[in-house]
Amino acid sequence: MEALIKELVETDGPSGEETAVRELIEKRIAGSVDRTFTDSLGNLFALREGPAPLLLFSAHMDEIGVIVTHIDERGFLRIAPVGGVRPHLLLGQRLRFKEGLIGTVYHEKIKDLKELDWSKLYLDIGAADGEGAAERVRIGDMACLHQPFVNLGGRYLAKAMDDRIGCAVLVEAARRLPPSLPQGVCFLFSVQEEVGLRGAATAAYRLEPDYGFAVDVTSVGDTPEAPLMAVSLGQGPAIKIKDRSIICHPRVRELMIETAEKEAIPYQLEVLEYGGTDAGAIHLSRGGVPSGAVSIPCRYVHAPSEMVDAGDVAHAVALIEKLAARNWPLPEG
């Protein structure tokens, strides 16, 4: 599974430009599902056919990045965020465009770091002048952080763990499912989550699932002077109770906890005071979808290097596998 994670995090796919990630996932999951298809937004559906109810597990393919807004006469690029990017975390970082062009981020003269905002940042691609820069990039081109995958001895460090690690978990869970399931299961690899949960909204409307689950990262409270939060690396995946986008359905949450305890899978309970996941869009689809979320603890979310624990990832795979294979009742109402 480590090789799959490395492939996924080192493939670039900012919001709205997830094609390379989708093509990789489709190749890796094809033999584990009955069929795959893509919709007009670029969401990838991977289906195991079966009777009702239909379970939808969603992980998003897109990652944070930047977009070029201006090229000046000296060849420097002005940039704006795509998703939740904090400008001070980009200083000195390398960014990579789809065609492989790499540049580095720096800032105009400022007296204090508190003055730093997007208007002060620029991207240097080594162009001699504006004409030379314009031959290599265009207004609207997107770039992602350029960081390699590293195994730190049981913990993984890379850009785009949010949410390629969720994608890897779903691919691996699909590979491990038994030949026969008691209900239908769809693994969704969604687009544009980082800019408003957009892909999951249209995908859930099209699919009409009976239950929905997001598989995404969550922040932790185990680093020095971190905000108080009852989630730590190495203690198992988290079963979400609430974030800003959803209050998870209590019956779904109970069944998730019951499954984890029955299968002796370590888990944590998560209350995230900010942010959201695809579950926030799925549960509002049509007449409503009872939904929950499996969260993978992650340090330094939306930073150039995000860290997850290999044991948490393995236990997340096991939990998704058991949730997909257990007998789910038809929802009431």
The run of helices and strands is HHEEEEEEEEHEEEHEHEEHEHEEH
The description of the largest β-sheet is: 8 strands, mixed
What Rg is obtained from the alpha carbons, in whole angstroms?
A: 20 Å
Q: Judging from the principal axes of the Cα atoms, what is the shape?
A: globular
Strand residues, percent: 25-35%
Q: So, the CATH homologous superfamily of the largest domain?
A: Zn peptidases
Describe the structure.
- This protein folds into two domains: 229 residues, 3-Layer(aba) Sandwich (Aminopeptidase); 81 residues, Elongation Factor Tu (Ef-tu), domain 3 (Beta Barrel).
- The chain is built from eight helices and 17 strands.
- The strands form three sheets. An eight-stranded mixed beta sheet has the order 1-2-12-3-13-16-14-15, with helices on both faces. A six-stranded antiparallel β-barrel has the order 4-5-8-7-6-9. A three-stranded antiparallel beta sheet has the order 10-11-17.
- α1 packs antiparallel against α4 and α4 packs across α8.
- It is globular.
- The two termini are 40 Å apart.
- The mean pLDDT is 96.
SSE layout:
Blueprint: H1 2-9, H2 19-29, E1 35-38, E2 44-48, E3 54-60, E4 65-71, E5 76-82, E6 94-97, E7 102-107, E8 121-124, H3 130-134, E9 142-145, E10 150-151, E11 155-158, H4 161-176, E12 184-190, H5 198-207, E13 211-218, E14 238-242, H6 250-262, E15 268-271, H7 278-282, E16 291-297, E17 306-309, H8 310-325
Parallel strand pairs: 3-12, 3-13, 13-16, 14-15
Antiparallel strand pairs: 1-2, 2-12, 4-5, 4-9, 5-8, 6-7, 6-9, 7-8, 10-11, 11-17, 14-16
